[in-house]
Design a protein that fits this description.
The complex is a heterodimer of chains A (112) and B (111). With 112 residues, chain A is mainly beta. Chain A has strands spanning 5-7, 10-14, 19-24, 29-37, 43-50, 55-58, 61-66, 71-76, 85-93, 101-102, 106-111. In chain A, strands 2, 4, 5, 9, 10 and 11 form a six-stranded mixed β-sheet that branches. Chain A starts with a strand and ends with a strand. Helix content of chain B is 0%, strand content 51%. Chain B is built from no helices and eleven strands. The chains are: A mainly beta (112), B mainly beta (111).
């Protein structure tokens, strides 16, 4: 079963613009992680934010977490064509082991 | 430092057959998880191994089984293959409570 829902399902922007993807989830979490997947290959870990954190930065990435609304957002600033990929949020639920539960993803297309 | 290695990369099997997929975790990683990803969907958790034992299992039938070896490598076995088992199978490893490192996957096609 899917835990999260990403929004939008697809996003098309121009190089240099910012891209924002949102994720909502259902249960109490230990942490939330964002992954990128290029062309149906393996996933690449981007960033992990713990339930007691509200915002985290990594390079051009900014992630926010609102546990009261059970939602997170991923902002990619100054997008590049190489950012074209599918982006997934994944949660690790409290008291439910450490498995990642993924949403369906957002497909980002960045055109030059 | 090699990441997660999966083999084979592609596989075609016939309905009813059995398949074994293999995974070598990233060096230093002791926990291995397996995921099934259907086309256009997010990965679905199958099971996780730590210290050679299955520690957590997702909503998959008993046809899906696994094993972890003393060197932390892992196998995923699927018996009595169905057409619906066609998917990308991803292996992921981690150490402690950090993020996971994923392999490039095995693309399984059942005909």
């Amino acid at each position: 079963s899917q835990q999260g829902e990403e929004d939008p399902q697809a996003l098309s922007i121009q190089e240099g613009e910012n891209a924002t993807m949102n994720c909502s989830y259902k249960t109490s979490i230990n942490n939330l992680q964002w992954y990128r997947q290029n062309s149906g290959r393996g996933l690449v870990h981007l960033i992990l934010i713990r339930s007691n954190e509200r915002e985290k930065h990594s390079g051009r990435l900014r992630v926010t977490l609102d546990t009261s609304k059970k939602s997170s957002s991923l902002l990619i600033t100054a997008s590049r064509a190489a950012d074209t990929a599918s982006y997934f949020c994944a949660t690790v639920a409290n008291q439910a082991g450490t498995a990642l539960i993924f949403g369906k993803g957002t497909t980002l297309s960045v055109s030059s | 430092d090699a990441g997660v290695t999966q083999s084979p990369t592609h596989l075609i099997k016939t309905r009813g057959q059995q398949v074994t997929l293999r995974c070598s975790p990233k060096s230093g990683h002791d926990t291995v998880s397996w995921y099934q990803q259907a086309l256009g969907q997010g990965p679905q958790f199958i099971f996780q191994y730590y210290e050679e034992e299955e520690r957590q299992r997702g909503n998959f039938p008993d046809r899906f089984s696994g094993h972890q070896f003393p060197n932390y490598s892992s196998e995923l076995n699927v018996n009595a293959l169905l057409l619906g088992d066609s998917a990308l199978y991803l292996c992921a490893s981690r150490f402690d409570l950090g993020g996971y490192t994923f392999g490039s996957g095995t693309r399984l096609t059942v005909v």
